[in-house]
Design brief:
Elements lengths: L2 H14 L26 H17 L7 H12 L13 E5 L6 E4 L3 E5 H6 L3 H16 L2 H11 L5 H10 L5 H7 L4 H28 L6 H16 L5 H5 L4 H12 L11 H13 L4 H14 L5 H14 L3 H14 L4 H13 L3 H14 L4 H13 L3 H12 L7 H12 L3 H14 L3 H12 L6 H23 L3
Parallel strand pairs: 1-3
Antiparallel strand pairs: 2-3
Helix pairs in contact: 1-7, 5-9, 5-10, 6-7, 7-8, 9-12, 10-12, 13-15, 14-15, 15-16, 16-17, 17-18, 17-19, 18-19, 19-20, 19-21, 20-21, 21-22, 22-23, 23-24
Length: 486
């Protein structure tokens, strides 16, 4: 079975089988990355698959697109990587805009975490335990091994097997329907294979936790808590349990494994964990004023896990509600206690921009970036503030410098296009928008933008060559997409 025939089915199953909400269940088009003849899947092929899926996740609005949260989940994920025995070091972690409790790994090192899982945890070690489990799926190359396993055993529903590996499931409705066409022996082989993958990911993940300074018991604790809660949900059990089936034996195995290990470092500070949970709570709230009232009541009654995080959430809610002076007072109090916390510095500077106090905002951002140069969330917000202040040339300079750092935020290109447009640079505007569209899965629109850029008058040789090279890249990908089975 050619890999290129598998990939559209795989990506569709990922979108439809529970790793993402039903609203995102659209067909994801992928480039042809495999060769015929049954050859194994290479790491570069896996990476290209993951990149293509990520672009389409952006297109479908599946990403919780907040630079600070993105920075946090990547720093947390990368705190686990050095302890891995694998040679793979390039991962990308991202937050999914979904309140269900779930996480998943894609080929090539792309690991998604629903914001609902972050809110369901009680410690950073619990979040780290989920990331460690998913990292193990990637480092052990369970996606590629699934392909090879199915090929060797002549299983005709390879897509269902891959879905089981990607989603960690043995009982998803779509997988069940596909597996119904397979002999009982093949079904049992597939179940045993996926169970072994889950066991292996648990084993390696717990070791990663201990070696990285997190509580090795946190995986069993999180599984146990979700299992207890699932008894109250009935058929509406948390998605994580449906895609990562947990039983008493698995919990006991995880606990026993952890008991044999000792964390090599003291457990890490959880301040950013509590702050990011608070941030998610505000960003996903539909009624910011109501949330501020609720949180203020809890603060007054002492009903909180972390006082500063609760104050931070209240300040963000006040900002979003346009109550700038009240938000300013609370953020100043937080900064007095912790003057170097990026979350506070970012909120305080952004507040001034929202309040149209542009010079105060620019000064605050410059001060923060002097301490944290090229910080992604600060730079992105600073660029927005510069554009709001009518300083597109400064914004352009900042954005180009950040993009040279290979920042993976597609919206940097959108802001760059705005800056180029304000400066009257037509070709630059189209090029930047082309790069933005490509990174959010809109390759046709990206091609249109570059064609418009190519038609701009008075282009120099360097820019013509650069545009032509990107046009060739986009055309090649579109040609590959057209070859996929419809």
């Amino acid at each position: 079975m050619q890999l290129r025939f598998l990939l559209p089915i795989l990506s569709l199953i990922v979108a439809m089988s529970g790793a993402l909400p039903a609203a995102y269940g659209q067909s994801i088009a992928l480039p042809e990355i495999g060769q015929s003849g049954g050859a194994g899947v290479t790491p570069s092929e896996e990476r290209r698959t993951g990149e293509a899926v990520m672009r389409n996740f952006y297109r479908m609005g599946a990403i919780l697109d907040d630079p600070l949260l993105h920075d946090y989940i990547n720093l947390l994920g990368y705190s686990l990587i050095p302890a891995s025995n694998s040679s793979k070091r390039d991962f990308q972690f991202f937050m999914v805009d979904d309140d269900s409790i779930n996480a998943f790994a894609l080929p090539g090192g792309y690991i998604g975490v629903n914001y609902g899982l972050l809110l369901a945890t009680e410690s950073e070690s619990e979040v780290a335990s989920v990331l460690a489990h998913e990292i193990a799926h990637v480092t052990q190359r369970h996606h590629a091994r699934a392909y090879e396993f199915a090929s060797q055993n002549n299983i005709p529903v390879l897509a269902a097997l891959i879905a089981a590996i990607v989603l960690g499931t043995q009982n998803g409705e779509l997988a069940q329907a596909a597996l119904a066409t397979v002999t009982a022996g093949s079904i049992q082989q597939q179940i045993n294979f996926t169970r072994e993958n889950e066991k292996e990911a648990d084993y390696i993940g717990i070791q990663l936790l201990a070696d990285s300074g997190y509580n090795p018991q946190s995986m069993a604790a999180f599984f146990s808590q979700l299992s207890k809660e699932s008894r109250l949900y009935g058929p509406q059990a948390p998605e994580f349990l449906r895609t990562h089936p947990v039983n008493e034996s698995r919990i006991a195995d995880a606990s026993n494994r952890a008991a044999q290990l000792t964390a090599k470092k003291s457990y890490r500070s959880q301040k950013n964990y509590f702050l990011m949970r608070a941030r998610v709570q505000v960003l996903t709230s539909e009624d910011k004023k109501k949330l501020v009232t609720q949180l203020s009541g809890k603060l007054k009654n002492g009903q909180y896990q972390d006082r500063e995080a609760t104050l931070y959430a209240i300040a963000l809610g006040l900002m979003e509600s346009g109550q700038y002076q009240q938000a300013r007072t609370k953020l100043d109090a937080l900064l007095k206690q912790d003057p170097e916390r990026i979350a506070y510095l970012l909120a305080r500077a952004k507040l001034e921009s929202l309040a149209k106090r542009h010079q105060a905002a620019i000064s605050a951002f410059k001060k923060a970036l002097a301490d944290y140069p090229h910080n992604g969330p600060l730079t992105f917000a600073y660029s927005q503030a510069l554009l709001n202040a009518g300083k597109p040339a400064m914004a352009r300079k900042v954005l180009l410098a950040q993009l040279r750092k290979q920042d993976d935020n597609p919206n940097l290109y959108r802001l760059l296009a705005e800056a180029e447009s304000s400066l009257g640079n037509t070709a630059g505007t189209h090029v930047a928008m082309g790069e933005y569209y490509y990174r959010v899965g809109l390759t046709h629109q990206a091609l249109d933008q570059l064609n418009l850029a190519r038609k701009t008058e008075h282009l120099d040789w360097y820019n013509i060559e650069r545009i032509e090279a990107r046009l060739a890249d986009f055309k090649e990908e579109l040609a590959q997409l057209e070859q996929l089975p419809k």
